[in-house]
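User: Here's a protein and a ligand (zinc ion). What would the complex look like?
Assistant: Let me lay out the input and then the predicted complex.
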Amino acid sequence: MNAVNIQNKDELRDLYRELILDHSRSPRHFGKLADATHTAEGINPLCGDKLRLYLRLDENAVIADVSFEGSGCAISVASASLLTDIVIGTTVDTAQDYVQAVTRHLTAAKPAELEPIDLGKIRALDGVREFPARVKCATLAWQALSSAIQQQATPVTTE
Ligand code: ZN
């Protein structure tokens, strides 16, 4: 992303809204991963979001490829799409750090000014902080990622 000089909060909000809409309309890495080594399902019954995440880990525990499929609201799809962009090429340890940071960032009463890991575009999801029900939409894919890395057989649910 280009360096953008943000003039005010409304401008930042508009940018974030555009990013969410873009990722929800054209999700990245969407579809089944044929040679996946790890997979997990995430279900958010409150909203009706349902997605499956696929990972292909290489011998060094690096996420060589990632994809997701399923359906849900714009927030859940955009979050999953952003996730795939961010964790591809990272180690599973770094991916878990992202899961922790994103979850903490979206659920803490007051977000830390500085997370140990750069959240980057994930900050586009900040708007959901004002809507507790939507937080589950935003964190669903991340929970599925953590579950897939740990090879859990049962689907994760936000309930
Ligand atoms: Zn949702």
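Summary: The mean pLDDT is 88.
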